[in-house]
Inverse folding.
C-alpha cells in the first residue's frame, strides 16, 4: 500500500469514528409489497389507511361508501411513531383489474373500479359529506372548478382594479401637491380623493369545508354487516398472489349517545371529552368550564381503531363512544344546590392574553363591535361558570326544540383534597382495633 | 338430608365464630379498606380544572400507565367514568376474597390430611356437610365485608363530595355472585387433592388460569395473538366465573337488565354444579386421602 493510499484509508476510518451517527444511522428497511390502499368513512370523516402483507383483515363501516385501490409500493416500519408507512414517492404502481368478493352467503361477486370524488359542503355543523360516483363525480369536480375559476378570475380582476385604484390615487396625490404648490384651489380634487374607494377583496369560496378531490378511480365497497373474503383479479383474469384478505364490515352498536367536550377556562387548548353516559365530571373548581355537546356512536374498539389505521391496536372486548357531530342548536340546562335553573346557549368567546409579565390568558365574551372588531371568535361553546364553593352542578343537554336528550345528563362535582379525608383512613384501620380488642378478650378468656 | 343440613348449619356457625376470634379476617378487611382509601384519596389529588389527570398523583400515574398500556385507553376511561369507586371496589375486595377462599381451601385440605374430616364423618356429619359449611361461612362473611365496603365508600364519598354511581352498585352485587362461584371452585380444588398445599396450588392455578384467559381477551392486541386468545377463551369461558362477571358488566353498560339477571343466575348455577361435582368426587374418593 502506498503512503497516499494509507493516508486515505486512515482518513476514512477517522471520518467513520468522528461521525458515528452517520456510520450507524438506522434507515428503515423498505419492502416492496402489494397493498390495499383504503379510504374509509369512519362516521365523521374520510381517513386513509392501508393493509400490509401482515394484515389479517381490513375493517370497514357498513352501509357507507369506502374506496379501495390495489397497488404495489414500498412499505416500512417507522419506529418513532410505531406504525407502518408507505414510500409512494419511490414506488407507486396501481393495478387495474377487478375485485372478487365472497360474502357471508358464499356468493361471489365482482367489483369494477369507478371514478369517484368526495367532499364536505359547508353546513351548520360538521357532517355534510357527499360522495359523487361516475359522471356525477366529473360534475362535482367541474362545479368545484367553476367556483374556483370564478374566484381566481375575481382575484385577477381585483388586482387590476387595485392597480388602477393605486395609480389613480398616486396621480391625484401628486396633482394635488403640485396645484397646492402653485397656490391653486384643490378642494374639488380633494373631494374626488375622498370619494375614491379601494376595490373590495374577493372572498375565498366558502362552499366546501373539504373540497372535492380530483376524480380518480377506485373500487367502491358499500357493504352490509358481515365478514367477507376479498381478492384481486388482474385484467388478464389471473388472481394476484397475496391479494386475499378478510374484510370485516361492522356497524355501530348504539347511536343515541350524547357526549360533552369539556374545555377548562385555564387550559382551553387541552379539551377533554366526557363520553360515558352517567359519567361524572370531577373538577377542582379553579376555572369555568366551556362545553360543547355532541352526538356520538358506539363501536367495537378494535374494529374502529383498525378501520382508522389498519396496524393500530384495539380492545376487541370493549365498545367505545366516537364523536360524530355537535348537537345542532342545543341548549344546556344547568341546575344544582344554590343555583337557579337556567338554560345556556352556545356563544362566541375570545381568548385574551393576560396583560403584564405573567403568562396566561383569560376567556372573555366575544365583542365583535368593540374590543374584538375585525377579529374572529376563538371558540364557540356553552359557558358553565364554576367556583370552588360549588359542590354539585347538574347538566342536561337539550335539543333545538328544548327536549332533554337521553344520555345527555351529567354531573359536575367540585372536589378538593381536605383534612376530613383522614376520617376514611381511621375507618379503614378500625378493623385492626376490633382485632386487638377480640384478641385481648380471647387471651383473657383463655388465661382465666 | 335434614341431618346434613343441620350438621352444615352447626359447622358453619362454629367456623364463623372461629373466624371472628382470629386475626386474619380483620387484617384482610383492614388491608382491603386501606387499599381502597389510597385509591380514593389518590383520585381526589389527581383532579384538576379539566378533570382526572393521572399524572398529578404518582399512584394514579402508575395505575393509569399500567392499565392503559395493557388494556387501552377505552377501558381506563370507562373504569373511572363515574369516579374511583368501581376500581377501588375491585382492589378493596380482592384481599378478603383471597383470604376467605384460600383459608377455606387450606383448612379443608388440612382437615382431610390429619383425619379430622374422617372423624366428623364417623359422627353426625359427612364431608359434604364440611365443605358446605365452609362455603356458607365464606358467603356470609363476604356479605358482611361487602356491607362494610359499602358503608366505607359511602362515608368516603360524602367526605370528598364524590358520587357512588350506578355501576358501583351493580358491581357490588356481581361481586357476591362471583365470590360464590370462586368459593365453590375452592371446594372443588380441596376435594380433588390430598393435602392443603396441593389444594391451594390447584385453586390458585385455576383462578390465575381464568384470569389470564379473561385478561387475554381484554388485552389490546393485533394479529394472530388475539385470535389464539379468542379461540382458547371461547372453549374455557363457559366454566369461568370471570366470564359471567364480564357478561354482567357488559349488561350494565347497555342497561340490559335481563342479561344482567341471567348472568347472576348462571353464576349461581355454575357454583351449584361445581359444588355438586365436589360432592360426587368426595363420595367417590372418600374423606381420607
Amino acid at each position: 500500500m502506498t503512503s497516499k493510499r494509507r493516508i486515505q484509508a486512515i482518513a476514512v476510518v477517522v471520518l467513520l469514528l468522528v461521525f458515528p451517527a452517520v456510520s450507524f444511522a438506522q434507515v428503515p428497511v423498505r419492502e416492496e409489497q402489494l397493498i390495499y390502499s383504503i379510504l374509509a368513512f369512519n362516521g365523521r370523516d374520510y381517513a386513509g389507511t392501508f393493509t400490509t402483507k401482515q394484515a389479517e383483515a381490513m375493517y370497514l363501516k357498513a352501509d357507507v361508501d369506502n374506496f379501495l385501490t390495489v397497488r404495489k409500493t414500498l412499505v416500512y416500519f417507522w419506529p418513532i411513531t410505531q406504525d407502518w408507512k408507505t414510500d409512494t414517492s419511490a414506488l407507486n404502481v396501481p393495478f387495474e383489474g377487478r375485485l372478487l368478493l365472497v360474502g357471508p352467503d358464499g356468493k361471489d361477486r365482482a367489483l369494477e373500479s369507478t371514478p369517484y370524488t368526495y367532499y364536505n359542503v359547508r353546513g351548520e355543523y360538521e357532517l355534510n359529506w357527499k360522495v359523487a360516483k361516475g359522471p356525477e363525480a366529473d360534475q362535482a369536480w367541474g362545479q368545484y372548478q367553476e367556483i374556483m375559476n370564478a374566484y381566481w378570475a375575481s382575484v385577477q380582476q381585483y388586482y387590476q382594479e387595485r392597480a388602477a385604484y393605486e395609480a389613480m390615487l398616486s396621480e391625484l396625490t401628486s396633482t394635488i401637491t403640485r396645484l397646492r404648490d402653485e397656490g391653486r384651489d384643490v378642494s374639488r380634487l380633494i373631494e374626488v380623493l375622498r370619494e375614491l374607494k379601494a376595490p373590495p377583496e374577493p372572498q375565498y369560496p366558502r362552499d366546501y369545508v373539504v373540497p372535492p378531490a380530483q376524480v380518480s378511480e377506485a373500487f367502491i365497497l358499500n357493504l352490509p354487516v358481515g365478514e367477507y373474503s376479498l381478492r384481486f383479479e388482474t385484467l388478464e383474469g389471473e388472481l394476484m398472489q397475496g391479494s386475499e384478505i378478510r374484510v370485516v364490515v361492522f356497524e355501530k352498536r348504539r347511536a343515541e349517545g350524547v357526549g360533552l367536550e369539556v374545555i377548562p377556562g385555564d387550559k382551553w387548548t387541552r379539551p377533554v371529552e366526557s363520553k360515558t353516559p352517567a359519567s361524572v365530571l370531577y373538577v377542582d373548581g379553579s376555572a369555568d368550564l366551556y362545553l360543547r355537546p355532541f352526538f356520538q356512536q358506539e363501536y367495537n374498539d378494535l374494529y374502529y381503531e383498525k378501520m382508522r389505521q389498519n396496524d393500530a391496536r384495539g380492545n376487541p372486548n370493549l365498545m367505545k363512544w366516537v364523536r360524530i357531530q355537535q348537537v345542532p342548536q342545543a341548549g344546556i340546562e344547568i341546575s344544582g344546590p344554590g343555583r337557579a335553573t337556567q338554560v345556556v346557549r352556545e356563544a362566541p368567546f375570545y381568548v385574551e392574553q393576560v396583560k403584564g409579565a405573567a403568562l396566561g390568558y383569560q376567556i372573555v365574551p366575544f365583542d365583535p363591535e368593540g374590543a374584538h372588531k375585525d377579529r374572529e371568535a376563538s371558540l364557540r361553546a356553552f359557558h358553565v361558570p364554576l367556583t370552588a364553593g360549588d359542590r354539585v352542578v347538574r347538566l342536561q343537554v337539550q335539543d333545538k326544540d328544548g327536549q332533554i336528550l337521553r344520555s345527555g345528563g351529567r354531573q359536575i362535582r367540585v372536589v378538593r383534597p381536605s383534612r376530613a379525608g383522614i376520617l376514611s383512613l381511621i375507618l379503614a384501620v378500625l378493623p385492626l382495633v376490633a382485632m386487638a380488642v377480640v384478641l385481648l378478650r380471647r387471651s383473657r378468656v383463655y388465661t382465666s | 338430608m335434614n341431618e346434613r343440613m343441620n350438621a352444615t348449619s352447626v359447622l358453619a356457625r362454629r367456623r364463623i365464630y372461629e373466624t371472628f376470634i382470629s386475626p386474619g379476617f380483620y387484617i384482610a378487611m383492614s388491608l382491603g379498606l386501606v387499599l381502597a382509601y389510597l385509591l380514593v384519596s389518590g383520585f381526589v389529588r389527581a383532579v384538576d380544572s379539566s378533570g382526572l389527570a393521572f399524572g398529578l398523583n404518582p399512584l394514579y400515574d402508575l395505575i393509569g400507565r399500567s392499565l392503559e398500556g395493557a388494556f387501552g385507553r377505552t377501558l381506563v376511561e370507562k373504569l373511572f367514568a363515574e369516579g374511583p369507586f368501581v376500581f377501588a371496589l375491585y382492589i378493596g375486595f380482592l384481599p378478603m376474597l383471597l383470604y376467605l377462599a384460600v383459608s377455606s381451601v387450606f383448612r379443608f385440605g388440612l382437615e382431610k390430611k390429619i383425619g379430622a374430616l374422617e372423624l366428623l364423618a364417623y359422627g353426625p356429619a359427612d364431608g359434604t356437610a364440611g365443605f358446605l359449611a365452609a362455603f356458607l361461612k365464606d358467603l356470609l362473611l363476604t356479605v358482611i365485608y361487602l356491607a362494610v365496603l359499602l358503608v366505607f365508600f359511602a362515608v368516603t364519598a360524602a367526605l370528598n363530595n364524590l358520587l357512588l354511581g350506578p355501576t358501583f352498585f351493580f358491581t357490588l352485587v356481581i361481586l357476591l355472585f362471583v365470590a360464590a362461584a370462586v368459593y365453590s371452585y375452592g371446594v372443588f380444588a380441596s376435594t380433588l387433592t390430598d393435602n392443603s398445599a396441593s389444594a391451594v396450588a390447584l385453586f390458585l392455578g385455576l383462578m390465575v388460569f381464568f384470569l389470564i384467559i379473561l385478561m387475554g381477551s381484554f388485552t389490546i392486541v393485533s394479529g394472530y395473538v388475539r385470535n389464539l386468545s379468542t379461540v382458547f377463551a371461547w372453549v374455557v369461558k363457559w366454566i369461568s366465573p370471570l366470564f359471567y362477571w364480564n357478561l354482567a358488566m357488559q349488561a350494565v353498560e347497555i342497561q340490559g337488565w335481563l342479561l344482567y339477571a341471567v348472568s347472576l343466575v348462571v353464576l349461581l348455577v355454575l357454583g351449584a354444579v361445581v359444588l355438586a361435582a365436589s360432592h360426587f368426587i368426595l363420595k367417590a374418593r372418600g374423606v381420607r386421602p
Notes: Chain B touches chain A through 57 residues (CB under 8 Å). Residues 2-285 of chain B form one domain. Residues 14 and 193 of chain B are 24 Å apart (CA to CA).
